[in-house]
């Protein structure tokens, strides 16, 4: 079976978040179980500068809107790259500090159209698997230009909050006929919505956890698309993301000070000592370290972390935050760290090496998200023996079970509502367990858990087979 993944980011080439992790690592695991999987990405500046040995396949041009747009296709093993320097040869992927690129509508429409063309030029496929709004127009283009082609298109929604909504003037600029600007198609409150198009024109929809698959059919998780999604619920399934344990493993991670596993988890303290020394902080090594690693956006519950920050010095605990995102949050957390230099550390960059050191050094990992389609942070934290404290939503609800002392079951601490007081109560409850037997139980259960891609890759594979069987 031949499958093409079409995505706007994928590790190891380019990553801004969980989408990059999934589109890069799921193909590896699908290949391990015998599927032929190729990946198509835009050729961004950072990929060009990274010195991959890319082989040029061909150059061509198309009329896109009212421009003649040249492009070329490059390849490295199973990955194809679409090179169009005016659109992709830029410092950042989606935005600059002053906001989204104003031509993201053209950048990702062109990418979706050219990826579809490329798949056809390469002889077609059984399954085309697209991801999020950036590639959601591909099934729309397929319905226009290749309506009789047999391949099935699956759209995975990694985060419904991002839909690719642009002004109505976009339609003639992206080779979409005017009749697609209608309520039954791409129109959305007087604008054009790429993700809506993908939801309507894909053969099947998946999202990244069973709970999120239910939540997005309701307000407020549906972001005004709950009606459109509910109409397609028979063709919607939640498949939990995995993580790659070759990539995220404290026993082999080359970036942490001391490697450790389940039997040597006490070495986390040595990692903490080095991290605190490296960051030259006044934080005490004896205090449990709470960590947050994530985008600084309201989705991640950073507001309620900021709300409780001033109470932290009253607790026997320190907090480290690694996050990049909205300026107001970056400024707020830096101000809290300045106010409490012996309790709070704030770093506002994207730094994977530092994130690994934080997973390895921290005792608890905070994810008080408003909504969380799957969440990878808590899965990495489990593996690194950092006990998650999470709000019960989406994938957090599906992967973290609240610890019960009586039964000694559960891999973390959970709470119900997006509320600063509930978060604080959960932190206090977590600290009561630390560093006793209950804490060690939780930590062990977490480290032993299997959130690898094994079972999820098999679920995708059976979905692909189900869809191609229907075709025959
Ligand atoms: P999302 O995809 O919504 O951003 P996930 O939890 O699914 O959230 O994935 C986030 C991924 O990005 C994790 O691998 C996390 O470690 C990483 N990450 C987020 N922010 C940073 C940062 N500032 N520095 C390094 N890694 C980060």
TrEMBL record:
**Protein name per Swiss-Prot or TrEMBL:** Glycogen synthase
User: Which family, according to the similarity comment?
Assistant: Belongs to the glycosyltransferase 1 family. Bacterial/plant glycogen synthase subfamily.
Q: Which UniProt keywords apply?
A: Glycogen biosynthesis, Glycosyltransferase, Transferase
Instruction: Give the originating organism.
Output: Psychracetigena formicireducens
Q: Where is the Glycosyl transferase family domain?
A: 287-431
Q: Which InterPro entries match?
A: Glyco_trans_1, GS/SS, Starch_synth_cat_dom
Q: Name one GO biological process term.
A: glycogen biosynthetic process
Record HAMAP family: Glycogen_synth (MF_00484)
Whether Lipoprotein counts among this entry's keywords is no
Alphabetical list of Gene3D superfamilies matching this protein? Glycogen Phosphorylase B
GO MF, one example? alpha-1,4-glucan glucosyltransferase (UDP-glucose donor) activity
Report the catalytic activity: [(1->4)-alpha-D-glucosyl](n) + ADP-alpha-D-glucose = [(1->4)-alpha-D-glucosyl](n+1) + ADP + H(+)
| Gene from which the chain derives | glgA
| Residues that hold ADP-alpha-D-glucose according to the record | 15
């Amino acid at each position: 079976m031949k499958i093409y993944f079409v995505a706007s980011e994928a590790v190891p080439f380019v990553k801004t978040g969980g989408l990059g992790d999934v589109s890069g690592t799921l193909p590896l695991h699908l290949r391990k179980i015998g599927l032929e999987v190729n990946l198509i990405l835009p050729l961004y500046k950072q990929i060009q500068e990274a010195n991959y040995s890319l082989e040029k396949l061909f150059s061509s041009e198309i009329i896109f809107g009212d421009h003649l747009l040249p492009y070329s296709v490059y390849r490295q093993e199973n990955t194809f790259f679409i090179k169009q320097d005016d659109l992709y040869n830029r410092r950042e992927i989606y935005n600059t500090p002053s906001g989204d690129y104003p031509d993201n509508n053209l950048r990702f429409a062109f990418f979706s159209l050219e990826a579809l063309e490329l798949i056809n030029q390469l002889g077609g496929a059984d399954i085309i698997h697209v991801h999020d709004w950036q590639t959601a127009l591909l099934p729309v283009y397929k319905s226009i230009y290749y309506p009789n082609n047999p391949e099935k298109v699956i759209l995975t929604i990694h985060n419904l909050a991002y839909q690719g909504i642009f002004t109505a003037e976009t339609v003639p600029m992206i080779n979409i006929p005017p009749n697609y600007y209608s309520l039954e198609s791409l129109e959305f409150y007087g604008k054009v919505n790429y993700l809506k198009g993908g939801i309507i024109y894909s053969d099947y929809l998946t999202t990244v956890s069973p709970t999120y698959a239910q939540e997005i059919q309701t307000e407020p998780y549906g972001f005004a698309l709950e009606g459109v999604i509910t109409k397609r619920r028979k063709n919607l399934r939640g498949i939990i993301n995995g993580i790659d344990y070759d990539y995220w493993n404290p026993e082999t991670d080359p970036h942490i000070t001391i490697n450790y596993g389940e039997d040597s988890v006490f070495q986390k303290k040595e990692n903490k000592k080095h991290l605190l020394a490296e960051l030259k902080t006044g934080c005490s090594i004896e205090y449990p370290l709470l960590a947050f690693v994530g985008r600084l956006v309201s989705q991640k519950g950073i507001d309620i972390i900021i709300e409780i920050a001033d109470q932290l010095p009253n607790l026997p605990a320190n907090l480290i935050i690694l996050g990049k995102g909205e300026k107001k949050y970056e400024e707020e957390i830096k101000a809290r760290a300045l106010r409490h230099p012996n309790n709070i550390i704030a770093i506002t960059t994207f730094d994977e090496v530092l994130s690994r050191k934080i997973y390895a050094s921290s005792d608890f990992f905070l994810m008080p998200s408003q909504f969380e389609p799957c969440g990878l942070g808590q899965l990495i934290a489990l593996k690194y023996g950092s006990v998650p404290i999470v709000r019960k939503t989406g994938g957090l609800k599906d992967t973290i079970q609240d610890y019960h002392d009586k039964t000694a079951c559960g891999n973390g601490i959970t709470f119900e509502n997006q509320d600063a007081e509930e978060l604080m109560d959960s932190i206090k409850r977590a600290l009561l367990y630390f560093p006793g037997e209950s804490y060690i139980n939780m930590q062990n259960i977490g480290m032993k858990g299997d959130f690898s891609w094994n079972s999820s890759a098999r679920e995708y594979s059976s979905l692909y087979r189900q869809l191609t069987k229907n075709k025959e």
